[in-house]
Write a structure and sequence with these properties.
- This protein is an all-beta fold.
- It folds into two domains: 320 residues, Glycosyl hydrolase domain, family 43 (Tachylectin-2, Chain A), CATH 2.115.10; 149 residues, Jelly Rolls (Sandwich), CATH 2.60.120.560.
- The protein has no helices and 35 strands.
- The strands form eight sheets. The protein has a six-stranded antiparallel beta sheet with strand order 24-35-26-31-32-33, with no helix packed on it.
- Strand 1 and strand 2 form a beta hairpin.
- The radius of gyration is 29 Å and the shape is elongated.
- The two termini are 57 Å apart.
- The structure holds beta-D-fructofuranose.
- Beta-D-fructofuranose binds next to strand 1, strand 5, strand 11 and strand 15.
């Protein structure tokens, strides 16, 4: 029908009717993007959780299909609900579900058992238990069969956390090419801990590692995602991203749910976060989206890391069930392509910087620095020098000074105390270059610092000088020898070695 009701999203996916939450089982295969989603086939609030289904060729025009996984026993007496999960194309038929040469699609989802029961596999499960199960499709995702002979494939959390069996969910599966294994990330929601599993066949899983609790832990952890992304578009340099939903405890200023992320590496068994992705106090995080309505985001399997796309649920558990839409509730946010870009470590600014020195800490020895400031002093008294000290030892006995001489209108590098200067008597000197200000009157210095050099770029001039500081000369300071310098802004980025 025509989607013309009041509030009906016109370019975001929403189901024709009823309740929807998390995107599930996102995979791209043979020109089609599949979207499954947490769905209540019988109501406009959460319940009877099933997997709804829609497909698209372009991630913007969607066609809704019949429910793919209907809550067991629905509508009479629901005994098992199908919670959030993910899906992969089992190209090599590692699961063995493809019997006539078909390529099986495998969905891994959480079984939420609504009563104590003995399953067809013979397993006994408890009321309110959450276990991980699989289903397969032999017709490219249209129809699905649950793996009744073997479900659940992961019945309990690892033994130390067995008591968490009611809060064990949201499996995210992907193929890890380097180790030639399937990898699965699950969440122990209440204790903010992820468990990573590996498998050869998507049926038998072993525990590989754990992650958490760390960073934002204000609520349960849900819907983890783990995937690689190229860094700055590189073909060879990639980082892994781990996304974890949090409910409640989302971004500052919001109430309810939100997604956080970590950047790091994954070696096939463990995720190792970068140290600058971790905050000590468990109170803050890297937020994937800073608003109130982006949650349970999930990656598309079947796309290259370069074309990584995710969908997120554009709602919030705080008020999601009362939003004034009818006869549906919830939409997916616009698909987002994620990439990693190296951006600047630290930025500083001073409205005015007075005579003296201020430390910017141990900033390292390979740096890309942008220092800009007004080339005119407040009262027109253009006196003194302003600039940055790099390669300084903590007691400043070694230091390389780079700056601007207001009186002369020149930039300079002073390497008289830059470290080892004794090998030639002409080496320890101060060097000057003509300087030019921008049209707004500011002076911009771009400074590249390496272990034994500094290169300064300003206007039409460059000034290059070798320096030989000792290994512990990693400190930086801003200095002004006279009067206050206006509108100072400083950006310091660490440059990574090309040799690693
Ligand atoms: C997140 C979530 C998941 C769970 C699903 C149930 O929004 O709570 O943890 O699998 O919703 O619908």
């Amino acid at each position: 029908g025509l989607y013309t009701e009041v509030y009906r999203p016109q370019f975001h996916f929403s189901p024709a009717e009823n309740w929807m939450n998390d995107p599930c089982g996102l995979f791209y295969h043979e020109g089609l993007y599949h979207l499954y989603f947490q769905y209540n086939p019988g109501g406009i609030t959460w319940g009877n959780m099933s997997w709804g289904h829609a497909t698209s060729e372009d991630l913007s025009h969607w066609e809704e299909h019949p429910v793919a996984l209907l809550a067991e026993g629905y509508p009479g007496n629901v005994t098992e609900m199908y919670y959030t999960g993910s899906a992969v194309v089992d190209t090599n038929n590692t699961s063995g579900f493809g019997t006539n040469g078909e390529t099986p699609i495998i969905a891994v989802y959480t079984s939420q058992y609504e009563m104590t029961q003995t399953l067809p596999s013979g397993e006994e499960v408890l009321w309110d238990q959450e276990s991980q199960s699989i289903a397969y499709s032999l017709d490219n995702g249209k129809t699905w069969k649950t793996y009744d002979a073997g479900n659940p494939v992961i019945e309990y959390p690892p033994s130390p956390y067995r008591d968490q069996y009611e809060n064990f969910r949201d499996p995210f599966v992907f193929w890890h090419a380097d180790s030639e294994k399937w990898v699965l990330v699950t969440s122990l929601a209440e204790i903010n801990r992820l468990v990573i599993w590996t498998s050869d066949n998507l049926k038998d899983w072993s525990v590989a590692s754990e992650f958490g609790p760390v960073n934002a832990v204000g609520g349960v952890w849900e819907c983890p995602n783990l995937f690689p992304l190229p860094v700055d578009g590189s073909e060879t340099n990639q980082k892994w991203v781990l996304i974890v939903g949090l409910n409640p405890g989302g971004p500052p200023g919001t109430v309810g749910s939100g997604d956080q992320y970590f950047i790091g590496d994954f070696n096939g068994t463990a995720f190792i976060p970068d140290s600058d992705s971790i905050y000590s106090a468990n109170t803050t995080s890297n937020w994937l989206d800073w608003g109130p309505d982006y949650y349970a985001s999930s990656a598309y399997n079947g796309l290259s890391a370069k074309h990584h796309v995710q969908l997120g649920w554009m709602n919030n558990w705080q008020y999601g069930e009362s939003i004034p839409t009818y006869p549906w509730r919830s939409a997916m946010a616009a698909p987002r392509r994620l990439s990693l870009k190296t951006i600047d470590g630290k930025t500083y600014s001073w409205k005015s910087f007075e005579t003296g020195m201020q430390s910017v800490g141990s900033i390292g020895k390979t740096l890309d620095i942008n220092l800009s400031f007004s080339g005119v002093k407040e009262n027109g008294s253009n006196k003194g020098e302003f600039g940055i000290i790099v390669h300084a030892t903590s007691n400043l006995t070694q230091q390389t000074r780079i700056g601007y001489d207001f009186e002369e209108g020149t930039m300079f590098v002073d390497r008289r105390k830059s470290g080892d200067v004794a090998f030639d008597e002409t080496f320890p000197r101060k060097y000057f270059a003509p300087s030019r200000s921008e049209s707004d009157g500011s002076i911009n210095l771009r400074i590249l610092v390496d272990w034994s050099s500094v290169e300064v770029f300003n206007g039409a001039s460059t000034l290059t000088a070798q320096v030989f500081p000792s290994e512990d000369a990693t400190y930086g300071h801003i200095f002004s020898t006279e009067g206050s310098t206006q509108n100072v802004s400083l950006k310091i980025s660490e440059v990574s070695s090309i040799w690693t």
